[in-house]
């Protein structure tokens, strides 16, 4: 298939991502995929793609892309000031680009990661069932790497018919994105190891997202939490799990997290709120609030229901 | 069989703990339970730890409660465990940056460390951390050391290392806190194979000086 977009400038870190890969954790392969799964799902719905189609995930700054043929696109997630030629482009809305038109971003207003979908989805190298770029091993997406200037982006499939521009997701249905979100989390299997003052601190502390935070996980700075008990044997980990290493500063595991580990797991953040964490940058803040498995699952169901309005 | 503990790991995964020690029989059972769970509807993936199984499920197709209720029966009778794994002989050049220091701490000579490391046939208890990283053990008691106080920010691929009751081979350049004894030219991560790992749970490994 003919390329649909050309990369004029790649942006800081733009990669192809879908909903990730499953079934290979027993060999150390993380789920990967979009950090903000809601924004990816919404972007796909807005251009008529299936849920699992691949989008571009852009961190902090967006790319500059030139349409090589007319195409239907949508930009969701973070607000980086999307522009078509020099006109503001509405977010969470399907928009047609004509051949030669230029998608660019004026600058970050809110959020950390924006998603760009194109009708038909982005094509690339499929690795273990997913197009998601996994940079540690250089697989998936476009040669397992972030986009570079001059890259040509091909669609995965012909655009679905009919192509309808103007589909939109109402502002009130978006997740409660915030610069300092309170993430709902279920107690983890080793929560009981926290000393009593550490439990109080866990729910009260506003943690700062540390500098060494990326698609693998966020280091959380704040009051050190004290935990007791013997070393644990390594267990399989999950997206949203909060580990507590010996220094007492928690790590929130994100999409490319290590698949197994031996630190106590004190919390598991609800999927609906991993979405909120995905929109944070180092230096921003988060805190935790307790929830139950059933309430957390309901929260994700409500987000899914919002997508049905598209 | 000790009591099975089942606890949530967020809202789409749960942890089944079968015990809390490194034990071949317990680990075999964990892998058999993981294999049985992977076939169950609503289960997206399952990964065994040393003595645990983490189950990743789709809450739209199965419930935490339903899954948790079914697991004790599966643990009691997980079905046939697969054939015992393949034996891999892995050559090692024992010139790692931590060989001398580890020997000092253990009160051994580097040659004794090398000889002891090559003696056992290790079992692959699990593969995790990064693609292709096999947790091998048990390590002879005379070689057991706590992890390095300050982990290295970059350990070269192919490094052969020890920590606690474990030994392993770094498949990719990653940070790491284990003691580096040497290196092997063998590739642990096989990106173009499925599974993408040379070593699989239940396999056996013997090291020899290259």
Task: Report on the architecture of this protein.
- The complex is a heterodimer of chains A (310) and B (210).
- The model of chain A has no long low-confidence stretch (mean pLDDT 96).
- The longest helix of chain A is centred in the last third of the chain and has 15 residues, at 293-307.
- Chain A is α+β, with helices and mostly antiparallel strands and 310 residues long.
- Chain A has helices spanning 37-46, 196-204, 271-277, 293-307, and strands at 5-9, 14-17, 55-59, 64-67, 71-79, 82-84, 87-88, 94-97, 102-105, 110-118, 152-153, 182-187, 207-209, 217-221, 235-236, 241-243, 251-253, 260-261, 265-269, 285-290.
- Chain B has 210 residues and is of the alpha+beta class.
- In chain B, strand 1 and strand 2 form a beta hairpin.
- Chain B starts with a strand and ends with a strand.
- Chains A and B meet through strand 12, strand 15, strand 18, strand 19 and helix 4 of A and strand 1, strand 2, strand 3 and strand 4 of B.
Kindly name the structural category of chain A: alpha+beta
Please indicate the percent range of residues of chain A in DSSP E strands (runs of 2 or more). Answer: 25-35%
> Which percent range describes the beta-strand content of chain B?
25-35%
Side-by-side strand order of the widest sheet of chain A: 12-19-16-17-14-13-20
- Unreliably modeled segments of chain B: none
Shape, principal axes of CA atoms of chain A: globular
Order of helices and strands of chain B: EEHEEHEHHEEEEEEEE
The share of residues in helices of chain B is: 10-25%
In DSSP terms (H or I, runs of 4 or more residues), the helix count of chain B works out at: 4
Spans of chain A of 5+ residues with little confidence (pLDDT < 50)? none
Number of strands of chain A: 20
């Amino acid at each position: 298939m003919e390329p649909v977009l050309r990369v004029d400038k790649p942006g800081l870190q733009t990669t192809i991502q879908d909903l990730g890969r499953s079934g290979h954790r027993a060999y150390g392969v993380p789920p990967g995929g979009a950090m903000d799964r809601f924004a990816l799902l919404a972007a796909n719905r807005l251009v008529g793609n299936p849920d699992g189609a691949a989008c571009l995930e852009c961190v902090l700054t967006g790319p500059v892309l030139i349409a090589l043929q007319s195409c239907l696109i949508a930009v969701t997630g973070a607000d980086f000031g999307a522009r078509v030629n020099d006109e503001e482009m509405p977010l969470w809305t399907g928009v047609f680009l004509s051949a030669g038109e230029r998608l660019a971003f004026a600058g970050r207003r809110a959020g950390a990661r924006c998603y760009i979908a194109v009708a038909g989805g982005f094509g690339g190298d499929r690795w273990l069932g997913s197009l998601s770029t996994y940079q540690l091993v250089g697989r998936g997406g476009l040669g397992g790497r972030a986009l570079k200037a001059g890259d040509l982006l091909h669609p995965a499939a012909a655009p679905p018919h009919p192509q309808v521009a103007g589909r939109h997701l109402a502002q009130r249905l978006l997740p409660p994105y915030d610069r300092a979100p309170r993430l709902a989390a279920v107690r983890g299997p080793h929560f009981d190891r926290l000393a009593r003052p550490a439990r109080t601190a866990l729910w009260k502390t506003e943690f700062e997202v540390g500098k060494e935070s990326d698609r693998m996980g966020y280091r959380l700075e704040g009051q050190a939490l004290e935990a007791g008990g013997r070393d644990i044997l390594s267990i399989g980990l999950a997206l949203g799990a909060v580990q507590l290493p010996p220094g007492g500063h928690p790590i929130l595991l994100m999409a490319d997290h290590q698949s197994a580990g031996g630190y106590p797991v004190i919390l598991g953040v609800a999927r609906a709120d991993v979405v909120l964490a995905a929109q944070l940058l180092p230096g921003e803040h988060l805190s935790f609030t307790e929830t139950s498995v059933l309430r957390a699952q309901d929260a994700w169901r409500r987000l899914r229901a919002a997508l049905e309005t598209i | 069989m000790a009591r099975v503990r089942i606890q949530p790991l967020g809202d789409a995964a749960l942890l089944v703990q079968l015990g809390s020690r490194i034990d071949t029989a317990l680990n075999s059972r964990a892998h058999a339970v993981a294999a049985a769970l992977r076939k169950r509807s609503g289960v997206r993936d399952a990964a065994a730890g040393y003595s645990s199984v983490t189950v990743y499920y789709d809450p739209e197709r199965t419930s935490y409660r339903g899954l948790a209720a079914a697991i004790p029966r599966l643990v009691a009778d997980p079905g046939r465990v697969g054939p015992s794994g393949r034996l891999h002989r892995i050559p090692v050049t024992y010139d790692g940056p931590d060989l001398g220091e580890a020997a000092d701490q253990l009160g051994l000579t580097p040659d004794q460390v090398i000889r002891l490391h090559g003696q056992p046939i290790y079992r692959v208890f699990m593969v995790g951390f990064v693609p292709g990283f096999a947790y091998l053990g048990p390590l002879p008691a005379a070689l057991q050391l706590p992890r390095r106080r300050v982990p290295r920010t970059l350990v070269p691929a192919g490094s052969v290392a020890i920590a606690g009751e474990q030994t392993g081979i770094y498949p990719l350049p990653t940070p790491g806190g284990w003691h580096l004894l040497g290196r092997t030219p063998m590739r642990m991560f096989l990106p173009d194979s499925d599974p993408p790992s040379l070593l699989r749970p239940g396999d056996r490994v013997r090291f020899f000086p290259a």
